[in-house]
Every structure is written in C-alpha cells, then in structure tokens.
Amino acid sequence: MKIRRMKHLKQYLSFYKINFGFREPYLILVDGTFCQAALESKIQIKEQMPKYFGGEIQLCTTTCVIHELSLLEKELGNARIIAQRFQRRHCAHRHNPVSATECLLSLVQEKNWQHYFLATQDPELTSQVKRLPCVPLLYIIKNTPVLDRPSIASKRAAIRAQAAQLIPRQEKLHLREMKAKLFPKPNRLRQPRPCKGPAGPNPLSCLKKKKKHRGLDIHTHVGVAAQRATVAQAAKKKMKKKKKKIIIDGH
After folding, report:
1. Of 44, 76, 41, 69, which is closest to residue 59 (Cα–Cα)?
2. CATH number of 2-160
3. SS3 call for 78
4. What is the pLDDT of residues 161-175, one digit of tens each?
5. Which of 24, 34, 118, 158 has the fewest CB atoms within 10 Å, counting from its CB?
6. What are the boundaries of each domain within the chain?
C-alpha cells in the first residue's frame, strides 16, 4: 500500500508541475479541521509533511482560520495552537474576518495563481474546491497524509492548456501571412556596385629579371685553350717568316 501511495503521489505531483507550473517549496494552506485531524492521528505536520512530499514545503494559514478556531476554543483549542505556528497569508478579510471556508476559497479562486495545496477535512469545502481547476487537495486518511487525485475540473483545464499549445500547421502559416500583411517589411534596394576599370599590370611582373650567371663547363674551357694555342702558333710562324726575309735581304 505504501509503494502504491507513493507512486500515486509522484504521478499527481507531476501532473500539477507539468500542466500548472507547481514548484518547490510547495505552499500548503491548512485549515482548522486538518490540524485537529493531525492531533487525533498523532501526526507531526512540520516533520512529516516534507518527508511525504519529498521536498521543501511551506505550511501557511490565514487570519480568518485562526479567528474561527478561537471562537471554538473549547473544541479546537489545541488545533488553534498548531495553526498559529504557520505562516499567515494575506487575505482581504483582515479587519472583518469571515468563515474559514469563504476565506480559503477566495485564495484559491482565479486559477489558483499562487499554487496552493489545500489541506482540509471539511467535506463542504472539499466539494466546492473540486469544482475549481488547479487546486490540489490534501487529506489525512488512516493516520497518513494523502494527496487526492486531480479533479475533473483540473483535468479539463490541463487538456485545454495542452490544446492551446498545439496549434495546427495551417494556422501557423495563416498567422504568418496575416503578420506579413499587417507589418510589411521595408524593401531594401540594393546599391549598384561601382564599375571597375581595366586592370593594371601586375607589379610583380614589372620587376627586372635577374641575370643568371652560369659557370663555364669543361668543354668551353677546352675550346678556349685550343683557340689560344692556334693563335700563338700562327704568331710564331709569322715571326719566323719575317726573320727569314730580313736575312735574305741582308745578303
């Protein structure tokens, strides 16, 4: 039973987190009947409730609840002592207290935008709260706090919220077209690019070519030496002819 109860608790908490944005610390709005049931069941609310939820909680009540318990001092005096330890939430009846039922209903109406969990044992209050969406109910059953399953009103509100998020593709296209008609974008004229003239020569190609000094090979050296030897031989022959001519003329 304990495993099943904890499984249901996780499912219900996930439902309220995903669909209505409930977050820690969970705000638990407590009335006098819940405090009295906790006394009779010997439940330490401040110690056991965080363990039950598996996270941080904030126990709170209202001035109207305290005022109603003070009027029933003989029957619910100890419950008043417990409720006085909780944080008091602001209500519109501070100077003119109303019944606890009326006060608590005023806080959870308008889609329960403060995300209260309502802890009560009052059947009249419970029946009225179940008609409202997004209000988790908490009871004490068999000496154990129990989170009630989401009401039909809460499930319908969750379905409506999910349907509102899933907009068909055609509607998205229609909305886009409507926005384009209502808020047309200004036409941006492209500026013509300036015409470029004839391209000049590449500056690198205008550089003077460096002369390549090539060393003379062996054949070149041999040819030069042969020419020099031939010239020398021709000069010697010429000199010999001149000497012979001089000798002949002398005789």
Report:
1. 44
2. 3.40.50.1010
3. helix
4. 888 777 666 677 777
5. 24
6. 2-160
